[in-house]
Specification:
heterodimer, A: alpha/beta, Rossmann fold, Alpha-Beta Plaits, 6-stranded parallel beta sheet, 14 helices, 22 strands, 32% helix, globular, B: mainly alpha, 1% strand
Chain lengths: 457, 490
């Protein structure tokens, strides 16, 4: 990519900081990392193209050394919420055009988000626990899906499902699906084992394939129903571990009328949760105790969410759930990185708060960068970075506008996944066309698109 | 070991060597040296083609660990030297393989130790290539590679670390590539500036270019038999000043460009370096006053010789072998001292000596106040205990290699001063030593074995010992070829 990388300062080289820095460096940004822990910095600097400064991110001198005055983006992701807010506030004093992002996790501040944004000028307040809870809740509302991501302000969803044995989609081509089942969804990616393809009409689906498709929420339910999936939301949830994320999730679930049972070890925390969530059932005890799980109804509930602080425990819980019950299992993984091993365990839905956080921040950085010299609005990376979804705003007439999609000579490995027009989402077919003023989302395995016309051969 | 990665780097290095070889070809054509130009051009084309072919398989996203960086550096430098020696052999100017490799290694490592008895008999094209090897070797070919070839991943720093001189390698800017570019731009700008100044001072253009390459890389190949003695005094002054400039840590220039001259002037290494030069020059000037014609000449010779030795360049305006013992001893000490870290110079580096001196001071104070907690600080920053350790080990390894090399060379039966300074002048990348290898002599009389030992010393000295040692350690390759064989078995 010939685009200029942004100048970014990241404070805090912890779990999220580390993931973030690695990803941002891969995208060619100029990174400066500030952390008090020299050893962590050295480790990072050895493997990553960035500059490291030892010190406090709230120190004036350190920020000057990091070159704050010509920085574009300032991200503070240290362990402490207060420090993050302080860093962003101080950084903002140097440079009015600076965008600042702070990680704030404590639920006490959750209602202050708007205040912090407007008064302190912090562009984005990110709360990994809350984001993780939202993602988990989306999955619980649609348990058939492996993952659900929303696009275009929630109007479009990217849903991932696995085709089970004997499903009607097994052995059918994409074209057949369009002609006989529905035209309202668009399959943008198929993962078969380790392979990833952006399918064309002749592509034949097989059982075991993991398909990702774009749809709107309503058509999604209809589609899933028509191919024989259960579309009902879960009725009851068993949450193991009563941390912050569990609180956010329970709150979301209870509001939608789902029964929640929480198992928590710490008696004090149980009391707290009781105060915070009067409608939830709080059980005091060890979540790895089999009989306690049985008592809590692991075999009867619709879903089990493992949210303890220990990743190993969460994985074991999910495996246990799969073994003894038919409930949907969701596993939270905080720290460990053995992605391949975790994938091979087939845990079903796994959520990684650090990736969610990093992804949110990265897409913000991307949109900022994208605005420099292109009409790219937003860009997401999909399928473990094997594909990219780029959203373009069509501002002027070009070779792609006013032509039926089927007549466009598109590059291979590319699909126009949806067109946003007048606040509505159109899942396109060959006879649709792109107009001026539309938002167009393209999913592609080729990277580095900056213009909508880049999709043409 | 990542074979594909190593091949990729090796290929690119070859191609770069080929492209750079086109410069002497142009020079040869200007001077009408048709036969040699054709030879050089053929080699250049061959290197470019072969290099591109070898590096055709771009490695995927791989992490370059320090080990890989060391191997790549050692491999690149060895390949560079052997390939660079081929034209000398084919043109018949240096027919012996050992001699040709010695001359090229001496060039790339910016040593400037020559085996040529009559430099003036060389063709212009070969002289230019000889000097150009200094320029390439000065800042390093992998740094050049990083500057021009986009490589994925942030672990490239390990390539730079393995090649760049100095105890710790820092970056000016967040990205390795931008840092490498900045380094080369500063380097190129200073070189061009020197060429212009020398031309303006009345030096012939060919001489200016070759001298500037020799100075910039702190190399020291002269294009006249008497090195710099026959050039006008004001040219000697100019070259001496430029040698000192190239021996300064390049951070200094970057800080000046980045409009932080205050910070630049605070770099303690540069201050110490300049102080050493000043004190040595004054002492030698007084010491040699009697044997030279007047104080101006004494000062000029003293200054030039101090500059040439501390920056490890190796030009000469006078035969310092004839100086009094005190002056000679100072010269030998300066040989080991070397220039600043992050410059193009060789030697032990001022910053290492600084760290070492401060460690000694701390050790002494720990006897006086056993409970005192003290840390070694340079420029207000605490030196990492890891770095302290690596500096200590560096000194000892340096001593070991030095002693072992001197032992082997001593089998030839030359006097102690010759043996000692031959090794010192090569491992510190200076060039001329004292006695039989003094400024007016050369290394051609040594036996093949001694030459190979000195070749090793030059490479070890330029790459700061460890990359070469790691390259030669069998443990490095444990399991490296496993994948290769099992693939064949399938």
């Amino acid at each position: 990519m010939a685009k200029r990388g942004l100048r970014i300062i990241v404070v805090g080289a912890g779990k999220v900081g580390d993931t973030l820095v690695n990803r941002l460096a891969d995208e060619g940004h100029n990174l400066v990392i500030i952390d008090k822990n020299e050893e962590r910095l050295t480790q990072l600097a050895n493997l990553c193209d960035c500059m490291c400064i030892t010190g406090s991110g709230a120190s004036h001198e350190v920020l000057v050394e990091a070159g704050i005055s010509d920085t574009d983006l300032f991200i503070s992701v240290t362990e402490s919420d207060e420090l993050n807010l302080l860093c962003c506030t101080i950084a903002k004093q140097f440079n009015k055009n600076l965008s600042t992002i702070a990680r704030v996790r404590n639920p006490e501040y959750i209602s202050d988000v708007n205040y912090l944004r407007s008064k302190l000028g912090i562009e984005m307040i990110i709360n990994p626990e809350y984001e993780a809870a939202v993602e988990a809740s989306r999955l619980l509302f649609l348990p058939a899906a492996l993952s659900v991501n929303s696009f275009a302000h929630g109007q479009a969803e990217l849903v991932k499902i696995q085709i089970p044995e004997g499903n009607i989609l097994d052995g059918k081509t994409i074209a057949y699906l369009g002609q006989n089942i529905t035209n309202d969804i668009l399959i943008v990616g198929v993962e078969r084992g380790a392979d990833f393809t952006i399918p064309n009409g002749g592509f034949e689906l097989k059982s075991g394939d993991i398909i990702s498709y774009i749809s709107t929420r309503k058509t999604n339910f209809n589609f899933l129903k028509s191919i024989g999936f259960n579309t009902r939301s879960v009725k009851s949830s068993l949450i193991v571990g009563g941390g912050t994320c569990a609180y956010y999730l329970s709150d979301l679930l209870i509001k939608s009328g789902i029964d929640v049972t929480i198992i928590e070890k710490d008696p004090e925390r149980c009391e707290e949760l009781c105060d915070l969530l009067p409608k939830a059932t709080i059980l005091k005890g060890d979540g790895t105790n089999e009989s306690l799980l049985e008592e809590a109804g692991i075999k009867e509930v619709d879903s089990v969410i493992a949210l303890t602080g220990l990743d190993e425990e969460n994985i074991m819980l999910a495996l246990h759930t799969k073994a003894v019950s038919t409930a949907k299992a969701i596993t939270k993984i905080n720290k460990i990185t053995f992605t391949e091993a975790i994938e091979s365990l087939k845990l079903g839905s796994v959520i990684y708060p650090k990736y969610i956080t990093a992804e949110r921040i990265i897409s913000s950085a991307r949109s900022r960068q994208a605005k420099i010299g292109s009409n790219l609005e937003v860009m997401y990376s999909l399928f473990g970075d094997r594909a990219e979804a780029c959203e373009f705003k069509i501002r002027e007439a070009s070779r792609v506008t006013g032509v039926m999609l089927k007549d466009l000579q598109l590059k291979p490995g590319l699909i126009i996944s949806f067109i946003g027009r007048d606040g509505k989402i159109i899942v396109p077919t060959g006879s649709d066309q792109i107009n001026i003023g539309d938002n167009v989302m393209v999913v592609t395995t080729k990277k580095g698109f900056t213009e909508i016309s880049d999709i043409l051969r | 070991m990542k074979i594909r990665l190593q091949l990729y780097i090796l290929g690119k290095v070859m191609a770069i060597e080929g492209i750079l070889m086109l410069l002497p070809v142009m020079c040869g054509l200007i001077y009408g040296e048709l036969r040699n130009s054709v030879i050089y051009a053929l080699f250049a084309i061959f290197f470019i083609a072969a290099g591109l072919l070898i590096s055709k398989n771009k490695p995927g996203k791989v992490t370059i660990y320090l080990k890989d960086g060391c191997i790549a550096t050692a491999l690149s430098w060895i390949a560079l030297s052997i390939l660079g020696a081929l034209p000398f052999m084919v043109t018949g100017e240096i027919p012996s393989f050992t001699d040709a490799v010695f001359e090229t290694v001496s060039g790339f490592t910016t040593t400037g130790a020559s085996i040529l008895t009559n430099v003036e008999a060389m063709s212009h094209i070969s002289l230019m290539w000889r000097s150009l090897t200094h320029w390439i070797g000065g800042m390093g070919v992998l740094v050049f590679l990083l500057a021009v070839v986009p490589m994925s991943g942030g672990s490239n720093l390990n390539l730079m670390k393995a090649e760049s001189p100095g105890p710790s390698v820092g970056k000016f800017v967040p990205k390795v590539r931008s840092t490498a570019k900045a380094l080369y731009l500063i380097y190129l700008a200073l070189t061009i500036f020197e060429i212009l100044v020398l031309c303006f001072a009345g030096m012939p253009i060919f001489d200016s270019i070759c001298s500037a390459f020799g100075t910039a890389g702190t190399g020291g190949f002269g294009i006249r038999n008497d090195s710099f003695a026959s050039y006008a005094p004001h040219i000697q002054w100019i070259v001496a000043v430029f040698m000192i400039l190239f021996g300064i840590n390049f951070n200094f220039y970057y800080l000046i460009i980045a409009k932080q001259p205050g910070k630049a002037l605070k770099l303690s290494e540069v201050k110490v370096y300049l102080a050493i030069i000043l004190i040595s020059t004054i002492t030698i000037t007084i010491n040699v006053l009697k044997i030279t014609g007047g104080s101006a000449e004494a000062a000029r010779h003293a200054f030039f010789q101090v500059a040439t030795v501390i920056t490890t360049t190796g030009f000469a305006t006078t035969d310092f072998d004839k100086w009094p013992t005190l002056s000679k001893l100072i010269m030998v000490c300066l040989m080991f001292c070397g220039a600043c870290a992050g410059s193009t110079g060789g030697g032990v580096k001022v910053s290492r000596l600084q760290i070492r001196a401060k460690m000694i001071a701390r050790e002494i104070s720990s006897y006086i106040n056993p409970r005192a907690v003290k840390k070694v600080q340079i420029d207000g920053k605490t030196i990492d205990p890891e770095l302290e350790r690596s500096v200590s080990v560096y000194f000892f390894v340096f001593l070991l290699i030095f002693t072992a090399s001197a032992m082997i060379v001593s089998f030839e039966g030359h006097d102690l001063v010759t043996t000692f300074t031959a090794v010192a002048a090569t491992i510190n990348n200076i060039g001329p030593g004292l006695s039989l290898v003094g400024p007016t002599c050369n290394y051609s009389f040594l036996s093949g074995l001694s030459k190979w030992v000195l070749i090793f010393d030059m490479l070890a000295g330029r790459l700061e010992l460890f990359p070469l040692i790691i390259f030669l350690t069998p443990m490095t390759y444990k399991g490296a070829f496993k994948g290769l064989f099992s693939k064949k078995a399938n």
